[in-house]
Write a structure and sequence with these properties.
Largest sheet: 9 strands, mixed
Number of helices: 19
Oligomer: single chain
Mean pLDDT: 81
Strand content: 15-25%
Shape: globular
Number of strands: 18
Low-confidence stretches: 67-72, 520-540
Structural class: alpha/beta
Radius of gyration: 34 Å
CATH superfamily of the largest domain: P-loop containing nucleotide triphosphate hydrolases
CATH topology of the largest domain: Rossmann fold
Distance between the termini: 102 Å
CATH architecture of the largest domain: 3-Layer(aba) Sandwich
Number of domains: 3
């Protein structure tokens, strides 16, 4: 091999220019990506720092306004604890005029919803909370508040409490006995009035208030006075929002409408919206229900005297006054029903549990279907509800089938009256549903079936072996809503009042009667898991 050939072997040919450029670009892209991540992280850190600083600034401003008298604010423990140490020491050295109890009382005073109802057990601190709440804007000249009770003697108690509280919070405030109002140095006013009927409430017609409070709201038999007063809520000052606040206990004449307006629409302590159509489109009023219990008041719980007194009351009154139970009624058909015991969070029904449904039909009045699951101890679990009205039988049937799609429903029980012929106009309501593939058998229509059905529900509601025989998913809202308030028939105490909203109850009764409880039933029930007890028969029943 020549020297020239050796030299040519040792020389490495250069890489193409294109490859070098690609590697360089890739390297630059990686560096840029890493740099962008670092910048994004730094920006996020900066935003968090700015947000934290802004929140701290707001809290300090709140404390400053409260301590300097520029604005009356609620100083909660978390606000004070988040302030600098020297500020905390300053606050602690101030005279405390009123310190809200932790929990519901603080939540009520801090609530931002337009309408709030604070109700439940007696002794929860509701009246003092109602007195303190309108003070928050008393440094504004245009703030005008109205605090209402049903009668003048009841109002006098609130006035006496205000004279102890307001004179300390605002030493320069003046009480005017003739007008029944407090006037504050800023020009703000808090009026005290009574409204026993619509004639009384007319004295407030044409008045404007930025805050209205109604103490013991359930004492009113209807929402008429409440609605009339809230029509007077308006503010000419953009810095002053309008609020309506109410308190009360269950067990009064108006408990039902208060329950429907505040307690039923949402979970406790959860804000909800009420839609209102306006010329500018749909707007919303925000509402909130805050439950009260005796245990919320540490002053009354220092001794057991008041607790013992409430606990010694008859069952219904004990539930109302001690537990704040809005489902407890004197004439309740099912006093055993208790939401804590009988209402549960939804869960996935085990595959081996037996399923069926029961329905009460109605067109103008509501129609209700309940779906039942039977556990291995023969306990019933109502896990689904359909509650509707003004739908045809065929549409109703298709809706039922759609809801239970993919499930094995062993049978259905339907109000026996739906098999009645409607002259010569066609099939019965039940047959119309069956033609859609929604199979039913008629409910028990034997003598005393209504009485026996009610007794069957009583048996299942009782707690045996630490568990009741029937439980209801909280998503079955209409069954849960009506079970506690369904009244007895005054002419026949063994039955429910059929003029009440008993549609969900009837469906429950049909379902319970289809699986009655008795000592020898357990063994027969176990066979249902081994074989189908209902087989296809004719078109009349679908089985």
């Amino acid at each position: 091999m020549s020297d020239l050939e050796k030299d040519s072997q040792e020389i490495t040919p250069p890489k193409p220019k294109k490859i070098v450029q690609q590697k360089a670009k890739k390297s630059v892209k990686q560096i840029l990506a890493r740099t962008r991540k670092k910048v994004a992280k730094a920006e996020q850190t900066l935003r968090s720092a700015k947000m934290s600083a802004e929140n701290t600034k707001k809290k300090l401003l709140t404390i400053d306004k409260a301590l300097t008298g520029k604005e009356t604010q609620l100083l909660t423990e978390d606000i004070i604890e988040s302030a600098p140490k020297n500020v905390q020491e300053h606050v602690q050295n101030q005279e405390v005029i009123f310190k809200p109890n932790s929990g519901p009382q603080t939540q009520f005073l801090a609530a931002s919803e337009r309408e709030v109802f604070y109700g439940g057990a007696r002794g929860g601190g509701k009246s003092y909370a109602m007195l303190v709440d309108p003070l928050r804007y008393c440094t504004y000249a245009n703030h005008r508040a109205l605090l209402v009770r049903r009668t003048m003697p009841e109002l006098r108690d609130l006035i006496q409490k205000s004279q102890l509280l307001y004179s300390k919070a605002f030493p320069n405030a003046k009480w005017r006995e003739q007008e029944k109002e407090w006037r504050f140095p800023s020009g703000a006013k808090i009026e005290f009035g009574y409204a026993e009927n619509m004639t009384d409430v007319l004295r407030y017609q044409g008045q404007s208030y930025t805050w209205i409070g109604i103490d013991e709201l359930p004492q009113y038999p209807s929402p008429d006075i409440y609605n009339f007063l809230r029509s007077s809520l308006r503010s000419v000052d953009k810095d002053i929002p309008v609020y309506l606040r109410a308190t009360g206990n269950p067990g009064n004449i108006g408990s039902q409408w208060v329950r429907e307006m505040f307690v039923e629409p949402a979970e406790p302590n959860t804000a909800f919206n009420v839609g209102v159509d306006t010329p500018n489109g749909k707007k919303y009023i925000t509402r909130r229900f805050i439950p009260a219990k005796l245990q919320d008041n540490p002053y009354l719980m220092q001794t057991d005297d008041y607790y013992i007194m409430l606990a010694s009351l008859p069952e219904v009154q004990r539930k109302q006054f001690l537990d704040g139970d809005w489902d407890a009624y004197e004439d309740s058909a099912f006093p055993e029903f208790n939401k804590t015991t009988h209402v549960v969070e939804p869960f996935e029904i085990p595959r081996g549990w037996y399923k069926f449904r029961a329905a009460d039909w109605g067109y103008s009045s509501p129609a209700c279907v309940l779906w039942f699951a039977v556990d291995y101890n023969n306990n019933l679990w109502i896990y689904r509800e359909l509650y509707t009205k003004k739908v045809t039988a065929d549409y109703f049937a298709r809706n039922v089938l759609s809801l239970e799609q993919g499930e094995h429903i062993h049978y259905g029980v339907l109000d026996a009256s739906t098999w009645a012929r409607r002259g010569d106009v066609g099939p019965s309501i039940a047959e119309t549903m069956i033609q859609q593939g929604c199979r039913w058998r008629p409910s028990d229509r034997s003598p005393k079936s209504r009485i026996n059905g009610k007794l069957e529900i009583h048996k299942r509601l009782r707690v045996n072996d630490e568990e009741p025989g029937i439980r209801i998913f909280k998503t079955c809202r209409n069954l849960v809503r009506t079970m506690g308030i369904l009244p007895t028939d005054t002419k026949n105490p063994e039955d429910v009042d059929t003029h009440a909203e008993d549609h969900a109850y009837d469906a429950l009764r049909y379902g319970c009667m289809s699986r009655p409880t008795h000592p020898k039933y357990a063994e027969r029930f176990r066979t249902f898991f081994r074989q189908n007890d209902f087989h296809a028969a004719d078109d009349k029943f679908g089985y």
